[in-house]
Amino acid sequence: MKRQRTKPHSDWPTAWTGQERRGLITVIFLIVLLLVSLTMASLVRAMLTQRELVRAGSIRLQADWLAQSALNRAAARLKTEPAWSGETWNIAAEELRQTNAAAITIEVRNDESRSTRRQVRVTVLSPPEGPPRVRLQRTYAVDLPNPSAGS
User: Fold this and answer.
1) pLDDT tens profile 63-73
2) What share of residues in the chain are helix, strand, coil (percent, to 5)?
3) Of 102, 114, 104, which Cα lies nearest the Cα of 141?
4) Pairing state of beta strands 117-126 and 134-143?
5) Which of 43, 66, 129, 131 shows a CA-CA span of 20 to 30 A to 28?
6) Please, are residues 106 and 86 in contact by the beta-carbon 8 Å criterion?
7) Which among 90, 113, 102 is positioned nearest to 58, based on CA atoms?
8) The whole model's pTM is what?
């Protein structure tokens, strides 16, 4: 006996026409293009975030170096001039090779516990005007040379 073939369900097309196939391929292509675009946008956003973090770390590291330089300057100046009260440096962005300038303030105060010691407070602001991206403040104790030991 021969088996008789059954007809497919009437709602299901038995063959795609060329125009329907092109439409389906276009829809699939647009979905893949959307997914690739979203992935690329996410990668670009992550790259820009990483770049900003590296830049902020660089500015922070530079602020640490500027604070250390200010301390060295204060210690050297206090050895020759114990009454020195401090100063402010303004450094242009070009000198720092950054987009922002910096201001470094050195304040010297007498240490109440010892007359031969000064408290040096160093403040680094970058940029000096407006809201700072970096504000670094350090306080150091600097011992003055004993005047009776040098003679």
Assistant:
1) 899 999 999 99
2) 45, 25, 30
3) 114
4) antiparallel
5) 43
6) yes
7) 102
8) 0.67
